[in-house]
Amino acid sequence: MADEKNNWELTVNSCMDGLFNPARDACLRLEYSKLSSIDRVTIAGGPLPLILGEEFEIKAYWLNMDVSFQSHVVEKYVLITHKGCGYVKLKGVKFHSESEELGWHINQLEKSGKKLLEKYGDSIEVRLMWEARDGDIYSLYEAGCITNGEVVVHGDENGDPFGRLRLICSINIEEM
Ligand SMILES: [Zn+2]
Q: Which pLDDT value is given to residue 174?
C-alpha cells in the first residue's frame, strides 16, 4: 500500500565514474535539499544501458530501478550522463567533436526517459541532465525534461546542442 511507503522524492540514475561523485552530490544538494530522500541507481553509463546494453545489462538496470520504484513512491527521476563516459567508449561509440558527443547524449537521454515512462507511467517526471568535468571544474546542466508525458526541449532542437543546456551548478572541485 502506497501510504505505508516512505514519501520519497526522487531517484537519481547516473554513471559509476568516481570523478563526478562528490561534486554531483554538492550540486544535487542545491536542487534537492534532502539527499537522504534520494535513491541512487549508480551503474556504468547511467541510463545508457537501456540504449547500448545487452539483454543482461538491461535486466540489471530494471532490477535496480524497480526496487527503487516498488520500495518507495517515486514520481520524479533524474537521468544523468556525462562527457567522456567510459561505458560509451567501451560500446564502440565514437565522436568527432564535443558538440557531436553532447547532441548524441541528449538524444539518448530523451530516449531513456521515454522508456521510463513506458514502464512507470506518464505521470512520472524525468529531468535529463548532463555533467562535465573540465580540469577542476565540475558542471551539472539540465538538457531537457519530461512532464505530462511530453519531452520538453530547451532552446532550438536542431540548433547547437550547447544552446540546449541550462546550467544548474558549477563547482571547483579543489575548493570543495
Ligand atoms: Zn561514465
A: 87
